[in-house]
Write a structure and sequence with these properties.
This protein is α/β, with parallel strands linked by helices and about 325 residues long. It has one domain: Metallo-beta-lactamase, Chain A. Helix content is about 35%, strand content about 20%. The strands form two sheets. Strands 1-2-3-4-5-6-7 form a seven-stranded mixed beta sheet. Strand 9 and strand 10 form a beta hairpin. Helix 6 packs antiparallel against helix 8. It is globular. The protein starts with a helix and ends in a 9-residue tail after the last helix. The chain binds zinc ion. Zinc ion binds next to loops.
Length: about 325
C-alpha cells in the first residue's frame, strides 16, 4: 500500500475512527457517526446519528470484513487497511440486508462475499430500487450480491482464527452474527444495539424474543455490536447481559396490556435500570428509535386486530 493512497482515503472520511477493541487480537473497528442529532429521514442520515461500526479480523495473510461499510470510501479504507497488514485472502460477510451494512460493497468486489441466503434474496429483490432511490431515500447503492450463501451456520477459517457464521432471526430474518469460539467474542450486527434494538420487523417480535434466548445459549464473553457506544467498543465491548437487556426492552415494548407503559415513556426511563447498571449506554438518538419502535408496535397491533394471532405476542 502506498501511504499517500491511505492518507487520501482517510482525508475523505474526516469523522471515521479506527481502533482495536481492548483485549482483542487482530480485531479492528472502523467507526463513523454519532456526529449529528437524530432526525428521522433516510437510512444514511439515521446511521450517522446512531453511529456504526464495521470490523475486520486479520490473521496471517487473511482477513474478514464484517459488513461492507456505509459508503464505498469506508469499504476502501477497510480494504486498504487490512492489505497494509499483509492480508491477501479477504472475505466480506454481510450481517443482513439493511442499506447501512451493504452500501460500500462496490469497493469490495475483489473479496469473497458471503451472506445468509435470505440476505441475497432481499438484495436481489431491491437492487434496482436501491440503485435508483427517490429524492428522500438517501444515496444510491450499487448492490453487490454475495457470491456464496449459507442457511443455518457456516464455519470459516481466517488465518488461524475459527469464525462461525450463525443465523438468528433477531432484528431481521436474515441476520448473521459472527462468533469466535476461542475468544467467546460475538459480533452481533444489528441483533443487539446500544441503547436499544431497532424493531425493523415487528410482525416477528415473538420470534425475536425466542431467538434472543437461543443466542443467550452461545458461550459468549464479549459482544461487539454494529451500532453501539464507540468508547465501550474500544474498551472491549459489551457483556453477555446485553442479550438479556435487549429482551427486557422488547417485552416492555410489547407488554400484554392495551397500552404498554413503555409507549409513553422516554427510552432512558424504559431501560433506566440497565443504564444505571452499566449494561447499556445511553445515546440520545435512540429516543427517536424508540418512538419509531412504539409506532411500529401500534401499527402491528392494529393490523392484527380481528385477524388470528400469528407471531404477535
Ligand atoms: Zn439493520
Amino acid at each position: 500500500m502506498a501511504n499517500t493512497d491511505f492518507s487520501k482515503i482517510s482525508s475523505s472520511l474526516p469523522t471515521l475512527r479506527h481502533f482495536q477493541p481492548h483485549g482483542t487480537t487482530g480485531i479492528h473497528a472502523y467507526y463513523d457517526g454519532r456526529t449529528c442529532p437524530w432526525h428521522s429521514s433516510n437510512w444514511y442520515d439515521e446511521t450517522l446519528a446512531l453511529g456504526v461500526a464495521t470490523y475486520s479480523i486479520v490473521s496471517g495473510d487473511s482477513a474478514l470484513l464484517f459488513d461492507a461499510g456505509l459508503t464505498p470510501a469506508h469499504a476502501e479504507y477497510m480494504l486498504t487497511h487490512v492489505r497494509s497488514l499483509g492480508a491477501v485472502h479477504i472475505t466480506t460477510v454481510y450481517s443482513h440486508y439493511h442499506s447501512d451494512h451493504i452500501a460500500g460493497a462496490s469497493a469490495l468486489q475483489e473479496t469473497r462475499i458471503i451472506a445468509h441466503a435470505r440476505t441475497k434474496e432481499k438484495l436481489a429483490h431491491s437492487a434496482e430500487e436501491l440503485r435508483n432511490p427517490g429524492p428522500d431515500d438517501g444515496p444510491s447503492i450499487d448492490v453487490v450480491l454475495p457470491a456464496e450463501t449459507y442457511e443455518e451456520r457456516m464455519t470459516l477459517r481466517i488465518g488461524s482464527v475459527q469464525v462461525e457464521l450463525l443465523n438468528f432471526e433477531i432484528h431481521t430474518q436474515d441476520s448473521t452474527a459472527l462468533f469466535l469460539p476461542a475468544e467467546g467474542l460475538l459480533f452481533a450486527g444489528d441483533m443487539l444495539e446500544d441503547t436499544v434494538t431497532y424493531v425493523a420487523e415487528p410482525e416477528h417480535l415473538g420470534t425475536h424474543l425466542r431467538e434472543l434466548e437461543r443466542l443467550a445459549g452461545v458461550p459468549v464473553k464479549r459482544i461487539l455490536p454494529a451500532h453501539g457506544c464507540p468508547r465501550r467498543i474500544e474498551e472491549g465491548g459489551f457483556g453477555k447481559e446485553f442479550i438479556e437487556a435487549t429482551g427486557r426492552y422488547l417485552r416492555k415494548l410489547d407488554e400484554p396490556v392495551e397500552e404498554p407503559g413503555a409507549w409513553t415513556r422516554k427510552v432512558r426511563d424504559v431501560v433506566r435500570e440497565d443504564l444505571e447498571g452499566g449494561v447499556l449506554v445511553f445515546c440520545e438518538a435512540y429516543e427517536g428509535v424508540h418512538e419509531e419502535n412504539v409506532e411500529a408496535l401500534k401499527e402491528i397491533r392494529e393490523e392484527s386486530k380481528g385477524s388470528s394471532p400469528t407471531d404477535v405476542l
